[in-house]
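Step 1: inspect the first sequence and its tokens.
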Amino acid sequence: MINTTNDPSTPPTQRSIGELVQSIRDELLGVVHHEIDIAKKEFTALAIKVGIIAACAAVLLFLLLSAWVMLLFAAVTGLQNTGLPDWASFLIVAGVFIVIGAVLGLVAYLVYRKLEAPETTIETAQGVVGAVQGKRRQNAVSYDDTFDELYGKQVSARTD
């Protein structure tokens, strides 16, 4: 007879081996689905941050390229005309592009610094791999441990 609860006062119930295997299968599937949900949440958050970095980097590259074109036009115009009005305006526009690009680059860098590995998923996956490989956890109780080591008492098989 098998007691399906942890309460010793509960009477044991009759369950077949098939029912026990089905119960273990259901619990294992529940654990796997839970782990997949955790991984989805962590990777979704990571993907959002990577998307922000990619978008900022794309805009940054566009603005820096635009600023480079403006700087080239400003240099050519400055060489052609010694007067300030034509090329000074190009330099002002290029300066604005550079400032915007620097701000976006800083935003992308700050988001990049906050990226974290999906630690919970990695930790639980390593635990599953270890369990499949038959490795014990450091604080796990061994079958070789004696009652005395576990509870600090000596128990004799004889009753007086």
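Step 2: inspect the second sequence and its tokens, then contrast the two.
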Amino acid sequence: MGNSLIAVLGIGKGTWGHVKRLIDENPFDEIALISNEWGKENFKMDKPAKWIMVNNRAGFDVIKEEIKKNLPGGKIKVSIISGSGKEHLALLAALKEAGVEYEFIVITGEGVKTF
């Protein structure tokens, strides 16, 4: 299995450009986006993605379990540039509980960096 991206898309559209650039400029085999109905309706991209729909008003465990059962395969790259702390923590807890390895991915002035 190749590289996968999992990214949170929060309700503030200001950080969506960063996520869109990651998707457009990198060859991911699988893309999973954590958002809500509004995010799914308004985030535009040309590549297919799995949408992990969460209600950010739901309990932490509900969000974590929804993410955990929908994690992509392969080498997972994680973007938390967008979204809220609750969604970020649920994603990190889901990754830890699932026992999968991951790297963070970000676009900087020097290009894409993972760590």
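Step 3: confirm your contrast with the notes below.
The chain has a mean pLDDT of 95. The radius of gyration is 13 Å.
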